[in-house]
Amino acid sequence: DASSIECTLTGMVPGTVHRIHVEGDNGTVLESELSTNVGDVLPSTGDTSAVLYALGAIVVSLIALLNYGRYIDVKAGRLHAKSAHVYIAPAMLALAVLTFYPVLYGFWL
Fold first, then answer.
1. Going by C-beta distance under 8 Å and a sequence separation of 6 or more, which residues neighbour residue 32?
2. How many other CB atoms are there within 10 angstroms of residue 97's CB atom?
3. What is the 8-class DSSP label of residue 37?
4. Residue ranges of the domains in the chain?
């Protein structure tokens, strides 16, 4: 039986002989020394301005939310814990960034 093997090998250095050894269920399928004259073509990187805009929007929204919470506390007369919003701000920022940034970045990809 004649068999045909077709595959795409990436990472081969052009002009260099590479030893290829393919194992199957029943032993060695192919053992050969191959070379290529074509180098890998890397895709261009995408524009990340949309992702940075989303990250900035998350931070600005969080700052607005904390300021609104502080305003409501002052309006309601709760003044004995003035630094409460500043105290929780780093945790809220980390939570928002670690939750929404990967999701938005995934949509961008």
1. 19, 20
2. 14
3. S
4. 1-39, 49-108
Nearest alpha-carbon partner for 100 in 61, 67, 65 = 61
pLDDT(28) > 80: yes
pLDDT tens-digit profile of 50-74? 778 878 888 898 889 888 988 888 8
Contact, 89 vs 68, CB < 8 A? no
pLDDT of residue 89: 85
Neighbours of 30 (CB within 10 A): 13
Q: Is 49 left (phi over 0), alpha (psi -120 to 50) or beta?
A: alpha
State yes or no: pLDDT of 20 exceeds 60.
yes
Please state, in angstroms and rounded to a whole number, the distance separating the CA atoms of residues 102 and 104: 6
pTM across the whole model: 0.48
CA–CA distance, 96 with 32 (Å, rounded to integer): 53
